[in-house]
């Protein structure tokens, strides 16, 4: 997937609960060549730093929000953990109880994943 990092959150992450974090490889922070996505000093300064990739927040009035920087690769729906993360977030957003083992779902078949897709297909199923 294409994970975005170096997100800007409220001061001291007030009210923000990290859900998924990872440390990107240093070469991902350097960029390639010249351009808007290359050599950003704020990004390169964070070498070795863990980054929040999914988060949740709950307002004082009970409203809930969920943010996620992934989801760019359709084929991730075949990954059980990916699906569970997103389904759990959807259920939590509604105020319903998220099951202790996560929201169950059936892994889509390769045929289902390929249905109506105009994007290149992976060389093998995930």
Task: Give an overview of the whole structure.
This protein is α+β, with helices and mostly antiparallel strands. The protein is 23% helix and 16% strand. It has a 3-stranded antiparallel β-sheet, with helices on one face. A hairpin with a 5-residue loop joins strand 2 and strand 3 (64-68). It is flat. The mean pLDDT is 87.
Query: If you average the pLDDT, what whole number results?
Result: 87
C-alpha Rg (nearest Å): 17 Å
Report strand %.
Answer: 15-25%
Counting helices, strands and paired strands, the structural category is alpha+beta
**What is the helix fraction of residues, given as a range?**
10-25%
- N-end to C-end Cα span: 12 Å
Number of helices: 4
Indicate the low-confidence ranges by residue numbers: none
How would a crystallographer describe the biggest sheet?
Answer: 3 strands, antiparallel
Strand order of the largest sheet: 1-2-3
Silhouette:
flat
The topology string of helices and strands comes to EHHEEHH
Give the total of beta strands.
3
Quick structural summary:
The chain is α+β, with helices and mostly antiparallel strands and 126 residues long.
Question: Topology, pairings included?
Answer:
Elements: E1 16-22, H1 26-30, H2 41-44, E2 51-58, E3 64-68, H3 80-94, H4 110-114
Question: Could you name the key traits of this structure?
Answer:
126 residues, alpha+beta, three-stranded antiparallel sheet, 23% helix
């Amino acid at each position: 997937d294409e994970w975005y990092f170096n997100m800007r959150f409220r001061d001291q992450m007030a009210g923000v609960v990290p859900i998924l974090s990872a440390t990107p490889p240093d070469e991902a922070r350097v960029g390639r060549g010249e351009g808007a996505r290359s050599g950003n000093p704020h990004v390169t300064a964070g070498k070795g730093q863990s980054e929040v990739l999914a988060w949740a927040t709950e307002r004082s009035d009970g409203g809930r929000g969920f943010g996620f920087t992934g989801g760019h690769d359709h084929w991730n729906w075949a990954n059980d953990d990916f699906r569970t993360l997103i389904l759990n977030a959807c259920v939590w957003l509604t105020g319903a109880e998220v099951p202790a083992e996560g929201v169950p779902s059936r892994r889509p078949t390769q045929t289902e994943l390929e249905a109506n897709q105009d994007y290149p297909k992976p060389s093998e199923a995930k």
